[in-house]
Amino acid sequence: MSTKADFKSIGREELGQRLRDLDEPAYRADQILQWVYDKQAESFAGMSNLSAPLRKKLADSFTLDAVHALKTRNATDTTEKFLFQLRDHSLIETVLIPATPGLTSSSDRRTVCVSTQVGCAYGCKFCASGLDGIKRNLTAAEIVDQVLQVQKLSGEKVNNIVVMGMGEPLANYENLMRALRIINAPWGLGIGARKITVSTVGLVPQIKQLADEPMQIRLAVSLHGATDEVREKIMPVNKKYPLKELLDACDYYVNTKKRMMTFEYILIEGVNDSLEQAHKLGAAARRLRAKVNLIPCNPVEGLLLKRPDRDRCKMFQHTLQTHGITSTLRLEKGTDINAACGQLRLQHETGAKAAPKDEHHG
Ligand code: SAH
Question: Is 359 domain-assigned?
Fold first, then answer.
């Protein structure tokens, strides 16, 4: 592995400092950043308004690409899935979710769902990502570059980010925040904080830490159970951070940020789809004025997961409504080519999230 620094892990100020160390004026930083984030240059050598010696120094000091596309695959519903290889040959997935006309409020919305870890340590019983445990955290550059490469390969500017791919983002807090600051910065990808959603299994200390960040990032919490008894069965993390603590942390987030948050709730037949759970979820969401995304679970090879039937899902949603809770529920016909991946369906759901607050789906 090279000892060069990853260019896409460093911010503007740090770049300025490194340029001074190379005896170059700090103002060159903006020119270089423009090449990387605006023009998506493939090499330092091609940065034609920089002197040849500087280009050489940059190439000797930094690596530019952190992820490398192996293949892309189109699902039947126009989401596009990218398989990326990292320099250590690990594989991660990233998904591009184009606007769904008629479903989303803005027709030019292009969302990228990024991964934050290779594998995952949390072992949720319904999730494909944690089946083999965790290998490592992604670097900031590997997170940022997923978005850049998807932009380059699709030829379209991305304007919305959901951190809902492989891994637990808040377990990789420092690299995640570093990446999000670059994604958010005007000199970086320029994507507004309000267009960035971080989804978590519910790590209480990090939710509070995120609440205290200056960036107005959106929070989504994977709840999937409305009592400790039910949640614990499918999410081992609930033993460490039981519901009361989790909901208190959410309360802190909502009150500090003065922003709405979202609960994600996958529906698994016979596990968490009782109307008693719906009532408890409704009460919790009401207290926090949270929206709910209901997601009929995806099949995962080797896991026993059954989706409740359509009527059951609708009844669950209706029960939430009686608590005054807005929820989305997408009941899709058939299964697309990516159905085996635990993540993908949710990402379709996130496409639906763009709907105005009071709109219902399904
Ligand atoms: N670790 C973070 C983000 C990654 S998972 C989190 O837990 O939120 C992103 C979402 O996909 C989570 O809400 C997760 O519960 C959901 N998911 C995992 N497996 C799924 C499956 N089989 N069907 C539907 N959604 C699933």
Answer: no
Residue of 117, 222, 332, 348 best suited for mutating to test ligand 1, as the one with most atoms within 8 Å of CB: 222
93 and 237 share one domain:
yes
Residue of 127, 250, 297, 341 marked catalytic: 341
- Here the CATH number for the domain that contains residue 35 is 1.10.150.530
Q: What is the pLDDT of residue 2?
A: 59
For the cut 60, the answer to whether the pLDDT of residue 338 exceeds it is: no
pTM for the model:
0.90
Residues 109 and 207 in one domain: yes
pLDDT digits (tens, 9 = 90+) for 275-323: 999 999 999 999 999 999 999 998 888 888 899 999 999 999 999 999 9
What whole-number distance in Å separates Cα of residue 135 and Cα of residue 211?
28
Q: What is the pLDDT of residues 152-186, one digit of tens each?
A: 998 889 999 999 999 999 999 999 999 999 999 99
Residue range(s) defining the domain that contains residue 26: 5-63
Q: State yes or no: pLDDT of 105 exceeds 60.
A: no
Q: How far is the CA of 225 from the centre of ligand 1 (A)?
A: 13
- The answer to whether position 357 is within a domain reads no
Q: Report CA(201)–ligand 1 centroid distance (Å).
A: 8
* Residue 80 a catalytic site member: no
Q: Residue 308 and residue 295: Cα distance in Å, rounded?
A: 10
**Between residues 81 and 44, the one the model is more confident about:** 44
* Number of domains the chain contains: 2
CATH number at residue 115: 3.20.20.70
